């Protein structure tokens, strides 16, 4: 007989990044349906759901509510890095675990978080390694004004500079902000080879729509390429066709025209991973995440999560959006996550990167 385990779901059904959160939510719902129907597993999940409505100040209280007022210890959710960081203190205080299914900027390894998507050595660095020789070395950054945008720009600046390139501009918008005149004018004047777009949700869709007219001014030969590490299938429709040609990096793209992309798939996989970690281990839901991973390993199961940093190894796929689907350009085998870039050693083009000025 299956034992019923409550799990939390903390994703927004509306707000500035609803397409992203709804895709992730759909992945959790699909995963739970599959687990509950799987007769080979001795667990079934019951969802305790809360809706933050895309408001940053609602994530921590609702996370606390789930942990205090239900039996759920494992919560699937959060979209932005800001919301993830908001809930970590609540997870620490009330003994919870967050299963986080989106790409993020790295430089974090909480014992309370299962990082199921990818970090910079699994998305940004491979994307730049591919792009710099192909599209050019003159970059322009635009991102949402919080840690995701800031850190993506910082890492990319270092990589591009060491490759002998240049960053022509670096601009930020509040999440949901669509006032873009100053950024579009910048790009018109500076004419970069490519744009690294780290905007989130509505800001990104508005930016891509404005770029359509600008690209018409430039002509197809001189138009900058648009690169992204967070744009996937669930955002094609909200972007209204303006994202055609965008080049994205991630661990998974829909094999055919789909709606959710890697955000749905990593959420679905996260539910399956928890079920496999709990299977045939009564009361294991009360263990810490690292204890749970170790116990499963000792029983012969190969966890997706690295026991040292609780990040999943992921393949790297670079793909171009063509109409309503992504076409794969290049694929790399599964990369172990290196959230602090400890194995990344940039190589300067000249003998000295730093200069002493008297």
TrEMBL record:
InterPro entries: Peripla_BP_I. It holds the Pfam family Peripla_BP_5. It comes from the Bacteria. PANTHER family: ALIPHATIC AMIDASE EXPRESSION-REGULATING PROTEIN (PTHR47628:SF1), PTHR47628. This is Transporter substrate-binding protein. It comes from Pseudochrobactrum kiredjianiae.
């Amino acid at each position: 007989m299956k034992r019923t385990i409550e799990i939390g779901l903390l994703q927004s059904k509306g707000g500035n990044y609803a397409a992203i959160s709804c895709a992730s939510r759909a992945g959790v719902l699909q995963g739970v349906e599959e687990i509950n129907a799987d007769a080979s597993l001795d667990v079934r999940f019951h969802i305790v759901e809360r809706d933050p409505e895309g408001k940053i100040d609602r994530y921590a209280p609702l996370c606390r509510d789930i942990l205090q007022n239900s039996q759920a210890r494992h919560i699937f959710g959060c979209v932005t890095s800001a919301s993830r960081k908001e809930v970590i203190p609540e997870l620490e205080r009330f003994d919870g675990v967050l299963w986080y299914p989106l790409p993020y900027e790295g430089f974090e390894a909480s014992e309370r978080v299962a990082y199921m998507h990818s970090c910079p050595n699994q998305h940004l660095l491979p994307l730049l390694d591919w792009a710099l020789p192909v599209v050019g070395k003159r970059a322009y950054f635009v991102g949402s004004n919080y840690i995701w945008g800031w850190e993506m720009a910082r890492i990319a600046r270092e990589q591009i500079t060491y490759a002998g390139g240049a960053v022509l501009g670096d601009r930020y918008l509040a999440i949901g902000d669509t006032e873009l005149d100053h950024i579009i004018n910048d790009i018109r004047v500076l004419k970069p080879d490519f744009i690294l777009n780290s905007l989130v949700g509505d800001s990104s869709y508005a930016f891509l729509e404005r770029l359509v007219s600008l690209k018409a001014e430039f002509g197809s030969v001189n138009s900058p390429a648009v690169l992204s590490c967070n744009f996937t299938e669930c955002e094609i429709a909200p972007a209204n066709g303006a994202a055609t040609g965008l080049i994205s990096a991630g661990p998974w793209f829909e094999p055919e025209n789909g709606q959710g992309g890697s955000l749905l798939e990593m959420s679905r996989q996260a539910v399956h991973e928890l079920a496999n970690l709990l299977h045939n281990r009564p009361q294991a839901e009360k263990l810490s995440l690292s204890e749970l991973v170790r116990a499963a390993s000792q029983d012969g199961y190969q966890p997706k999560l690295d026991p040292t940093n609780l990040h999943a190894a992921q393949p790297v796929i670079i793909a171009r959006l063509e109409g309503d689907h992504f076409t794969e350009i290049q694929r790399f085998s599964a990369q172990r996550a290196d959230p602090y870039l400890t194995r990344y050693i940039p190589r300067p083009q000249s003998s000295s990167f730093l200069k002493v000025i008297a």
